[in-house]
Write a structure and sequence with these properties.
By secondary structure, the chain is an all-alpha fold. It has four helices and no strands.
């Protein structure tokens, strides 16, 4: 039995389908941005790349959480 994905990663399949880019590419964009605050990054994804609020928020939250664990 497969485990249900929860949290921000649960948005990943729909993000890839809707915007046509793999999650790794979105994460690299976030990491290469000079912005560092969560909401600044989410707003940037929304205005510059056309993402919806929930998708932008999920990508930023997951990427920042990943990076804080390094």
């Amino acid at each position: 039995m497969t485990e249900t994905v929860k949290g921000p990663a649960s948005y990943f399949p729909s993000i890839e389908k809707k915007y046509g880019r793999p999650i790794a590419e979105w994460k690299e964009l976030i990491r290469s941005s000079p912005l560092i605050k969560h909401m600044q990054l989410a707003e940037w994804l929304k205005t510059e790349h056309g993402l919806g609020h929930g998708h932008a928020n999920a990508l930023v939250a997951h990427t920042l959480a990943e990076d804080s664990g390094k």
